[in-house]
What we know:
- The protein contains 21 helices and seven strands.
- It has helices at residues 2-17, 20-23, 36-39, 44-50, 67-77, 92-109, 125-136, 150-153, 156-160, 172-184, 199-208, 213-225, 238-245, 257-271, 275-287, 292-307, 313-328, 334-346, 352-366, 384-387, 423-438; strands at 57-60, 81-86, 113-118, 140-146, 163-166, 194-197, 233-236.
- Strand 3 (113-118), helix 7 (125-136) and strand 4 (140-146) form a beta-alpha-beta unit.
- 30% of the residues are buried.
- The mean pLDDT is 86.
Amino acid sequence: MAADLFSDQHRENRERAMPLAVRMRPRTLDEFAGQEHFVGEGKLLRRMLQADRLTSAVFYGPPGTGKTTLAHVIARMTQAHFDEVNAAAVGVKEIREILASARDRLETSSRRSVLFVDELHRFNRAQQDVLLGDVENGVIILLAATTENPFFAVNTPLLSRSQVFQFQPLSAGAICDLLRCALNDSERGLGAYRVEIAPDALDHLATLCDGDARRALTALEVAVLSQAGTNRSAVVDLEVAAESIQQKAIRYDGTGDDHYDAASALIKSIRGSDPDATVYWLARMLEAGEDPRFLARRIVISAAEDIGNADPMGLVLAQAAADATQFVGLPECQLPLAQAAIYLACAPKSNASTLAIAAAREEVRTGQTIPVPKHLRDAHYKGAKQLGSGDGYKYPHDAEGGMVAQDYLGVDRTFYRPTNRGHEAQITIYLDAFKRLRGPAAAP
Length: 444
């Protein structure tokens, strides 16, 4: 009995020391916030849990979106034995011991075992392979959480035996609901305090946490406890909220999905002629610490790929911004980068040059090699005259208008098809005049 009393006291002491974000973890699916696309009524994971038919799964998403929390909810719901480890803190030896216990438990009592591995991406390929056999044979049900793309971070055989659930950042509305719940909960939250919180302060915390419930709850706890004295009261206005959460946490992995997704959004916004979206994605990447030289390279590529000859100044300005980035560095290089990106977004678009080089290279790779026509060959090397190189070449500058009727390829091919947008409309007129002057091209 004394031992039980002491155990209860120890548990209470541990719980009092827990941060608010840990104390407020939901205990049931109904308390769980967000991820309605797979835990909502009638959705896959909820149905699996309600039927106690859980299979191996990988929880993938940014921090603070409920991956570990959902694992704890599952631990309460499942009839299976539940083990939890962090991949950063255990090795192969500990994993083998857990697997051996699970195997023995299954053989002696028919009871299934669930193993939750947090931060699975910290296991190398060999460590992940230790799990494979028992996952495949059904000895354990593996739940794994990772912030990295599982299709890169998790072994393919292990991934093929698991259902991937992608967690999304919580909405500001969902975060506000969690904060209100914490303020009203006397058992686990801050309900024992008399807290007055301004609506704009609540919105500020919900916005700046950027979908991370843990960060929002931690900031709320700081805001309340930093003021609550013996009278256990606090007033949280916008200023207090801003001091409690400080700087916005920007979700961005400079080498992973965030890097490529944001770069893709930047280029597609330029291509789509939206300067506001363009400058937003540029700002997001800069604020997250992206290398400005990478951004400069992408802007130069976009100038050639998506604007092309519809506005030839686009590439000139993009290259100037790239040079300025090298010359002045951060933070000033954000100005020429923004100028160039916005210019490109507002410029007429053409990918005719991109299509032309792609078609020409495909012709070179797969078609019969076209010899250089004799009249275009270099006439200056030794023996060129005897070989007839350069014979019959017409110098365009000697002709009125700088254009002569002359074949430059030897076969009938069209690779460059300019649009009627921007400067390419003038190019189209020029090329039509050349084709009329030249007449029918040579047959292949």
